[in-house]
Amino acid sequence: MNKRHCAGNRTLAAILLTGTAMAAVTPVVAQEAGASEDRNVIIVTASKREQNLQDVPIAIQALGTETLDQLQVNELQDVIKFLPSVTIQQGAPGFAQIFFRAVASGENANHSTSLPTVGTYLDEMPITTIQGALDIHAYDLARVEALAGPQGTLYGASSMAGTIKLVTNQPDTGDTYGAVDLTLNSVKSGDLGYTGEGFVNLPLGENAAMRLVGWYRRDGGYIDNIAGSRTYPTSGITDNNAELVEEDYNDVDTYGARLALGIDLNDNWTIKPTLMGQVQKADGSFAQERSSAVNGKYQTVQYNPEGSEDKWVQAAMTIEGKIGSWDLVVTGGHLRRKTTVESDYSDYAYFYDALYGYGAYFYDNAGTLVNPNQYIQGVDRYRKSFGELRVSSPQDAPLRFIGGVFAQRQSHNIEQNYIIDDIADSITVPGSASNIWLTKQQRTDRDYAAFGELSYDLTDKLTLLAGARVYRYKNSLEGFFGYSAGFSSRTGVAACFAPAQIDGTPCTNVDKTTAETDSIFKLNATYKITDDALVYATWSQGFRPGGVNRRGTLPPYTPDKLDNYELGWKTTFGPVRFNGAIYQLDWNNIQLSFLGENGLSEVRNAGIARIRGLEMDLGYRSGGFSLNLGGSYNDAKIQRDFCRIANPQFDCTLDPGDGRTNALLAPSGTRLPVTAKFKGNAVARYEFPLGAWNARVQAAVNHVGSRRSDLRPFQNGIKGTLDAYTTADFSLGVKNDIYRVELFATNLFNSNGVINTGVQCLETTCGDPDGVSGTGPVFYDAVIKPRIIGLKVGMDF
Questions:
Q1: What would the pLDDT profile of 13-35 be if each residue is shown by its tens digit?
Q2: Backbone dihedral region of 665: left (phi > 0), alpha (psi from -120 to 50 degrees) or beta?
Q3: Which residues does residue 563 pair with via DSSP β-bridges, in sequence order?
Q4: Which of 175, 217, 356, 703 could form a disulfide with 195 if both were Cys (CB 3.0 to 4.6 A apart)?
C-alpha cells in the first residue's frame, strides 16, 4: 500500500471513485481504492462529522490526494478548473474570489466592500479573509471538498453560496514514511518553472506522531511588458517604460511549510495542534492588455513597477474527545496575513488628463506642472481569530444532534498610497512623502453564533432534518481616505470631523459601526430507495453580514440572504454512478458593489435575483478504464430593476433626494455576470501493467461558456462579454512501490481563455467609449495559463 495516499484517513482511499455527488473527476482515483476494503465507502466531513459521502444529502464535489497530483493541481485556480459548480475570478496570485452556482453580482472585491459569498476552510478553521481566500499550495492534502449551496447553519457567515474545505493529511502513529516530488516545466511563450516538495511522517512513541511538509514552487512568467510611451496632453510631458521592458515578467515564487502533531491522550481524547505558513512573491502583471499599443497575446504596457508579496501564518488546535457517548470538539486558531502590492495607475492619470484636463492640478512647489503619472503602493494586514465548541450525539441512534457555539473576529488594517512624484506640499496628503490620495483604515468584522441540526429516522428509509443558526455580527470601519485640503474641498482632510484615530493618518473622516442579530434555517428530507440510491429535498438559507461604506455620507449596507430549494439524488448501479441536483436560489437584498464618485467603491442593497440550475455527474469504470462526465447549468437573472440609488419602490425614476438623478443601471431580466450558463468537463483514464510498473494515460477536457463581465449593460458593452473557452490536458505516467514518473501537458492547445476583465478607473473614462482620448480604451484581461509541458518524478520512502 502506498502510504503517501492513505495516511490521512485509511478509509478515504476511493475518493471520487463511486460516490462523489457532482464530482467532476471521480474515476481518476482508482489507485486509491487499495486503501479500503470497501471501494464504495468515501468518508467526508461536510456535515462536521465523518460520513459516507453517498449518505450525505448535500451536493458535494471532492478531490483526493492522488487525484490532485494527477490533475497537476498546484493552487486554488487549478482546483476550481475541475469543479463544475464553482467559478473563480482572479487578477493575480493570492487575490481570488470564488463563486458557487452563479451567486455573483460582479463584485470588485475592494478592501472596503462586501465579504465573500463563499467560505474557505483549512481543516477546522475558516481562512477566508475580508478580501478573499488564501491561495494555499496544494500538496499533501487528504482532499478538497466543495459544498455547493448555502451552508449557513453549520458554517455561518460568508458560506452563503457554498464552502470550500481543504483537509490536510494528519499525523499517523503507525510508521515512519515520507515522499519527495520534483517537477520541471516549460510555459508556452514563457519561462521555465520548477517545484520541489516533500513530507515526512514520524511517530513519536505509541501515542503521538508528527507530520512535516514543505514546498518551493517557481512559476515561469508568460506576460511581456513591451515598450511604450504616452504624452500627457495638459503638460506635454512624455512618459516611457524603457526601464521596465521585460519578457516573461510575471514569474511567481511560492514557498511554505506545515507542521502537524497528533497526540492521543487516551482512547477517547486527542489533541491536534498545527502550524502552517506560506510566502508568495509575484512580479509583474497577470493580465494581457487590450489597447491600441498592444498587438498580440500575453503582452501589456505598464509604466510603473508591479508585483505583490503575500505572507501568512496560521496556528490552530483541535481537541476531540467523548463525554459519555457524545462526541465533543473544541477548536480554535489564529491567522495573520500581510500583503504588499505595487500597481501601475498611469491609465487613470492619462485618461483623466486627456478627457478632463486633470494634469493641470499636479504641480511642484514652484508651480511647475509635473508628470501626472500615478502608481499605488499598498500594505494590507489581516488578523483572524476564531473558536468553536460543538457536540454531537451517537450517530447510530435514530435521533441525532450536532450543534455548538462559534465566535470569530477578523480585522483588516488597510493602507493604500496613491503617489505622484514631486507634487507640491500643499496638495500632498499630510504626513506622506508624495501622496495625492491616501486610504488608511481599520476594518473589524465580528461574528457570533449558536447553531444546531437535529436528524430523525422516521423509518428505516426516511430521515428528516431541521437546522438553525442564530447569529450576531458587528462590523466597523474607521480611519481616513482622500486628498489633502489643498487639493479637494470635499473628499479627504476637508471632510474630517475628528483627530486621527489610526496611526499614519492626518485625521478621521470615517467612523461607523453596523450590527444585527438574526437567524437562518434549514429543512431536509432524505429517502433511501436502496442501499445504493437515495433522493433528497432541501430548503436551506445562507447569509452575508452587512458592513460600512467607506464614504461616510453613504449608509451602511445590510445583509443579503439566499434561499435554496433543491432536489438531489445519489445512485450507483454496478460500474455506473449517476448523481445530480436541481435547484432554485432566491437571492434577496443583493449587496451590489461598483465604482462611484472619485473611483470609490460603493455597496448598495439594490436588487433580487433568481438562479435556476442543474448539476450532474456521470461516471463509469470497468477494469483499468474509467470515464467521468460532469457539468452544471445556471440560468441566473435579476428579478427587479437595479437602480443607482436603491429605494423601497425599486423605481429608477424616483428622485433619491440627494441632488443627483437616479438611473436605471440594469433592467429586470438581466443575466448575472461572472458565471457561465454551462461549465463542464470530461476525464478519461486507462491504467495497465507495464512490466514491473503500473502505467496510466489520462486525458481531460474542460469547457467554460461565455460570461457577462458586468451586470450593468452599458458597462458590459464597454468591457465586452467574456468568450467561451475549452482546454485539454494530457498525462502519461508509470509508477511502482517506490518511484513514479509522469509526463504532462496542461492547456495542450494553448487556449487563451479570459477569466476576468477590467480597467484602472471608471469604465466610461478608462474605457473611453467615445474615443475622446485619441488613443482608445485600455482593458486588462486576466487569462488562464498558456500551455505547460512538464516532467514530474517522485519517490516514496
A1: 322 222 333 333 333 333 333 33
A2: alpha
A3: 541, 586
A4: 217
Set of cell numbers at residue 260: 502537524
Please list, residue by residue across 96-124, b when 16 or more beta carbons sit within 10 angstroms of its beta carbon and e when fewer do.
bbbbbbbbbbbbebbbbbbbbbbbbbbbb
766 DSSP assignment: H
Q: What is the pLDDT of residue 38?
A: 42
Does residue 298 lie within any of the structural domains? no
Number of structural domains, the chain? 1
User: Cα 728 from chain centroid?
Assistant: 23
Spatial contact of 445 and 545, defined as CB atoms under 8 Å apart = yes
HSE, CB side, 13 Å, CA atoms: give it for residue 796: 16
Cβ contacts of 115 within 8 Å, gap of 6 or more: 128, 130, 157, 158, 445, 544, 545, 547
Nearest to 511 by CA among 554, 555, 552, 557: 552
Which of 196, 200, 69, 169 has its CA nearest to residue 740?
69
Q: Which residues pair with 731 in a beta bridge?
A: 698, 744
Query: Which pTM does this prediction carry?
Result: 0.90
Summarize pLDDT for 465-475 with one digit per residue, the tens.
999 999 999 99
Cell of 289: 492588455
Q: Per the domain annotation, does 375 fall within a domain? A: yes
By DSSP bridging, strand 788-796 and strand 177-187 are antiparallel
Beta bridge partners of 760: none
For residue 739, the domain's CATH number is: 2.40.170.20
Rounded to an integer, the average pLDDT of 539-548 is: 93
CB 62 within 8 A of CB 42: yes
Write out pLDDT tens, residues 774-784.
888 999 999 99
Range of the domain at 150: 3-287+310-599+609-654+672-796
pLDDT digits (tens, 9 = 90+) for 690-718: 999 999 999 999 999 999 999 889 999 99
Rounded CA separation 322/227 (Å) = 66
DSSP character string of 404-419: EEEEEEEEEEEEEEEE
CA 149 to CA 541: how far, in whole Å? 9
Whether 2 shows a pLDDT value over 50: the answer reads: no
Q: For residue 533, is it within any domain?
A: yes
Write the single-letter amino acid at 467. Answer: G
Strands (E), 204-325: 208-219, 224-225, 229-231, 238-240, 252-264, 270-283, 287-290, 299-300, 307-323
Rounded distance between C-alpha atoms, residue 412 and residue 383, angstroms: 7
- Can you give the pLDDT at residue 6? 39
* Mean model confidence pLDDT for the chain: 89
Residue 598 has a pLDDT of 66
d(CA 429, CA 504): 11
State the amino acid at position 217 in one-letter form: R
Dist. CA 793–CA 739, nearest whole Å: 8
Q: Which three cell numbers stand for residue 297?
A: 497575446
Q: What is the per-residue pLDDT for 56?
A: 82
Q: Is residue 303 part of a domain?
A: no
